[in-house]
Amino acid sequence: MEIHEDVRPGVLLLATLDTKGPEALYLRDTLRGLGVKPLLMDLSMRYADPCVQPEIPAGVVAEAGGSSLEAVSGSRQMAPNMAIMAAGAARIALGLVKEGRVRGVIGIGGYTGSFVITAVMQALSFGFPKLMVSSAAALPGLSNQFLKTSDIMLFHSVVEISGLSGLVRNVLRRAAYALYATVQGRAVDPVIDKEKSIALTMLSTCEKCARSVRLALEKQGYQVVGFHAAGIGDRVMEDMIAGGLFHGVIDLAPGGVGEHLYGFMRDAGARRLESAGRVGIPQIISTCGVNHVTPSRSMSRPEHAARRKYDLDRFRTWIRMTPKELWEVAEVFAWKLNKSTGPVKVLIPLKGWSSVDSPGSPTYDPAEDALFVRRLRSALKKEIELIEVDANMEDPEFARAVMDAARDAF
Q1: 127-162: b or e for each residue (b if 16 or more CB lie within 10 Å)?
Q2: Would you say 285 and 234 are in contact if contact means Cβ atoms under 8 Å apart?
């Protein structure tokens, strides 16, 4: 990779210079004025203005992605071209980070540029400063695609990043100051003591239990890292577990397993409930939210409208699973947990699986929940202990039962 010898970058600046050349140069100059040393990388998929000189040209990026700028610019296949440039840029960025040459990354783009640039940012580790300035940030359904499981800071420009009007300059200067603030001092990796770190899933409907368990574990000297188990948070947890960051897992809210099976909103991916078993760390599993599904409006079918439901708020509705669905999800749970190479305990609260799953709730049905338990018990291998607790998920008795299991496991 050829980089100009007179440039000593402290941050990486990503842009498509064929469409964002003047804006990228303005941002580079602003960063320099703050005392930051930017390294400008061009992600253009066609030849840009030769007067704009990046430190890392698009041709170098395309070659790092296994192609050439000539091939990319001559192709009309947008998706493969984007993948090539993103792969090349990620490879270069990771190398620069490893060498200690950059302490943060900032990108500017519209729809296409934001997809390519955030794909690069997603390859960088948790805790490494990443700031994406995007005019497409507020388009429906896109922000989650830009972020995925990465801790990217998404800066909505509101106005198009086109030209250097006063509004655009204002946006770029604020972004420069934001990145400047995050890269002051020495960039460090997240500090996790694996032998004392516990991953804990939680939802608002089991928050009381999760808080009690967290506080009890912290008193014993554990570092508890919580994950909001609404689809993205538990995907992140699975990735971190696979990366060897945790000593054990308390998975109170594994509803993403069933949501993935049926393609609903809390879908946590195909690997949900598998990483801990694969690396062999202790797991304590419970059932918050497992007996409900959350189809989006676009996924909702007429039969969903006829089911029992609970409105958490004006945005979120939980719909009761059918007995057939409970049976099917239990089989998936068993199949995943049976592959575990470490100890597993499953705790079932007999008086409701969440704060909204209690007597008086329209979806409360312990008799149907028992179908899940019966199928799970029959399908689990004998080494996995299934413990029934005569309490609701949010009762103090259940939190104590979780801690009893934790003391045995951890």
Answers
A1: ebbbbbbbbbbeeeebbeebbebbbbbbbebeeebe
A2: no
User: In what helix (H) or strand (E) does residue 73 lie, and over which residues does it extend?
Assistant: helix 69-73
Strand order in the sheet with 309-311: 292-293, 317-320, 309-311
Note the pLDDT tens digit of each residue in 67-98.
999 999 898 888 999 999 999 999 999 999 99
Q: How many CA atoms lie within 13 Å of 132's alpha carbon, on the beta-carbon side?
A: 28
Q: Which CATH number fits domain 11-182: 3.40.50.360, 2.40.30.60, 3.40.50.12020, 3.20.20.140?
A: 3.40.50.12020
Per-residue pLDDT tens digits for 312-348: 777 778 889 999 999 999 999 999 999 999 999 999 9
pTM value?
Answer: 0.78
- What residues does each domain of the chain span? 11-182, 194-409
- For 388, the enclosing helix (H) or strand (E) is strand 385-389
**Tell me, what DSSP letter sits at residue 101?**
-
pLDDT-derived band at 186 (thresholds 50, 70, 90) equals low
pLDDT tens digits, 347-370: 999 999 999 898 889 999 999 999
Specify whether the CB–CB gap between 285 and 272 falls below 8 A. Answer: no
Per this entry, what is the length of the chain?
410
Scan for tokens 């409970």, then name that residue.
Answer: 326
Q: Which residue is it, tokens 């959350």?
A: 294
Please tell me the class of the 194-409 domain: alpha beta
What distance in Å separates the CA atoms of residue 175 and residue 160, rounded to the nearest whole number? 15
- Locate 26 and state its tokens: 């303005």
Distance, in Å, from the CA atom of 378 to the CA atom of 294, rounded to the nearest integer, reads 27
Q: Are 38 and 9 in contact (CB under 8 A)?
A: yes
Strand partners, 389: 349
| CATH fold match for the domains 11-182 and 194-409 | yes
